[in-house]
Amino acid sequence: MDRKLIKDIIHSKKLPTNIPDCVTFSRNIFIPVTNVCRNRCQYCGFRQPIDAGEAYLLSKEDVKGILGKNKSATEALFTFGERPEEIPKFKEWLGDLGYSKMVDYLVDLSKMAIDSGLLPHSNMGLLSYDELELLKPLNASMGLMLETTATLSIHERSPGKDPKKRIQTICDAGKLNIPFTTGILIGIGESWEDRIDSLLKIGDLHVRYGHIQEIIIQPFTPKPGTKMSECPPPSFDDIKKTVAIAHEILPKEVHIQVPPNLTSPYELVLCGASDLGGVSEQTIDYINPESEWPSQRKLMEMMQGINLKERLPIYPLFIKKGWYSDEISNLIRKYSDKKGFRKN
Fold first, then answer.
1. Per-position DSSP letters for 72-100, written without gaps between them
2. 107, 344 in Cβ contact below 8 A?
3. pLDDT 10s digit of each residue in the chain, 344 long?
4. Which residues of 229-264 are buried (b: 16+ CB within 10 A; e: fewer)?
């Protein structure tokens, strides 16, 4: 890494311009299985206390109803609060559904998604090697945000946000050849050095295992009712510089993803981003419900002439490598063209 170049980017008023051949995105159905979580991050508006009226656990019938909304998506995005079964009342809820562990419930939900014609992508938080191995055949890809390698006070009541533990999960996914999504969350009290260190760590993990298909540059957005509700989000200039630094640090096959409902993506693409993530025509962004997904037409307008290509939740590189199981191979063949993108 050229430290001088990184320093120049941080202090520059004019960033390098990169125009990719195309920008990718996927279509998903967003399935927030539960908003109960053992972590208590001070910025999170998704988590709800178990005794709050807004806390829930989706049943199989609930999930079936969401899957039934699908019209054109290829991905079932399963999102969870982390290890909610550690909370006694939630464990009772889960027991009422016939399960003692959320990972076992996800196995059956993933099978339901596959049967409905969708490729699962799951993000459950920290998982052990054995849990990842159990889920691998039923997922086209999986994910876990690193967020930061820094130890921050906002995570002091969040055992799952220990950077070493999150790195271990990402590392274990690499050992298992799981196409993986990770990312950093910026604006939560970390320094520029923390951001650089986080990006370097992700790059190192990819060099070692070759499994990181994309990294999300996610800006913090203040949520009402949280301890950080009055904290300002990162400036757009900081977001652009973070994308530009990621473009310099990360191996070229690792795509940089920016959320089009939270940012102005065209300018970030010029800084080095190449993917707009999963967007949904049928479900909202349950993590950022105030920010509506743009339609494909709107995405095309946002790109100002740069070619927009649809992909699956597993990137073309990993389709070509054959990093998927027999359980989902029929769906991969159904949806992907010869180059690994979505068939027209």
1. S--EEEEEE-SSGGGSHHHHHHHHHTT-S
2. no
3. 677 788 888 888 778 788 888 999 999 999 999 999 999 999 999 999 998 889 999 999 999 999 998 889 999 999 999 999 999 999 999 999 999 999 999 999 999 999 999 999 999 999 999 999 999 999 999 999 999 999 999 999 999 999 999 999 999 999 999 999 999 999 999 999 999 999 999 999 999 999 999 999 999 999 999 999 999 999 999 999 999 999 999 999 999 999 998 888 999 999 999 999 998 877 867 787 777 888 888 889 999 999 999 999 999 999 999 999 999 999 999 999 999 999 98
4. eebeebeeebbbbbbbbbbebbeeebbbbbbbbbbe
Strand 119-123 and strand 275-279: the pairing is: unpaired
Calculate helix-pair angle for 236-249, 192-209, nearest 10 degrees. Answer: 30
Residues contacting residue 262 through CB under 8 Å, at least 6 positions apart:
218, 219, 221, 288, 291
Structure-derived torsion over alpha carbons of residues 282, 280, 104, 112, reported in degrees to the nearest 10:
50
- What's the CA gap between 32 and 13, in Å, rounded? 40
Tokens matching residue 58: 């989706």
Residues in the chain: 344
To which residue do tokens 């790195």 refer?
A: 167
Tell me the C-alpha distance between 138 and 121, whole Å. 9
Direct distance between the N- and C-terminal alpha carbons of the chain, in angstroms, rounded to an integer: 39
Architecture of domain 3-335: Alpha-Beta Barrel (3.20)
Output the pTM of the full model: 0.95
CA pair distance 222, 226, nearest whole angstrom: 8
Degrees to nearest 5, angle at CA 20 with 16 and 22: 155
What are the φ/ψ torsions at residue 308 (nearest 5 degrees)?
-110, 125
Tell me the C-alpha to C-alpha distance, in Å, between residue 189 and each of 31, 41, 155, 220, 293: 29, 13, 11, 10, 27
